[in-house]
Design brief:
Distance between the termini: 33 Å
Number of helices: 1
Helix content: under 10%
Number of strands: 8
Strand content: 35-45%
Length: 138
C-alpha cells in the first residue's frame, strides 16, 4: 500500500497533466481486476473538468480511469472519456474487460458506457443508448 499523501500527490499530477479545472474520484468504488492479463490491477473511476478557456464551454466534464499495477504504490492515468461525461463507476466483465458507466450530459436521457479491453488504459467509443438515466440525486 502507498504511504498516506503519496496517492494525493499522484492525483494532483494527473490533474495538472490533463489540464483539469477540478478533479474528483468516484462517486463509484474502485475495483481490483481478477481475470485476464491485468489480474490484480486496481482500477478507480475519476472525473475532471477541462480548464475553462475562451474557446471552451464551462461544462467540459470528462470521466477517466486511473490504475495501479503495484497495489497502490504508484498510479497511472488510463482512458479519458469524451466531454460531457462524469460521475462514473467501473465494473469488471466476465471476459476480463472493464466497463465504465458514466453520467452523460449529451441530452439524450441515457448513461454513457465505454468498455476497455486492456484493463482501463484505453476504451472503445462511448455509447449513449443502452441505460436510461434519471438525473435524480438521492
Amino acid at each position: 500500500m502507498a504511504k498516506p499523501g503519496r496517492s494525493q500527490k499522484s492525483f494532483r499530477t494527473f490533474a495538472r497533466r490533463i489540464g483539469a479545472g477540478w478533479y474528483a474520484t468516484g462517486p463509484g468504488n474502485g475495483i481490483q481486476l481478477t481475470r485476464g492479463p491485468h489480474n490484480g490491477r486496481l482500477v478507480i473511476p475519476a472525473n475532471h473538468s477541462d480548464r475553462i478557456t475562451a474557446e471552451r464551454d464551462s461544462k467540459t466534464y470528462r470521466s477517466h480511469i486511473i490504475y495501479s499495477d503495484d497495489h497502490g504504490k504508484s498510479w497511472r492515468l488510463g482512458a479519458i472519456q469524451e466531454p460531457l461525461t462524469n460521475e462514473s463507476t467501473v465494473v469488471e466483465l466476465a471476459d476480463g474487460s472493464v466497463m465504465q458507466n458514466m453520467r452523460s450530459y449529451h441530452g439524450k436521457g441515457n448513461r454513457a458506457v465505454a468498455v476497455s479491453e486492456d484493463g482501463g488504459i484505453s476504451t472503445i467509443e462511448s455509447i449513449h443508448t443502452v441505460i436510461l438515466d434519471s438525473f435524480l440525486q438521492i
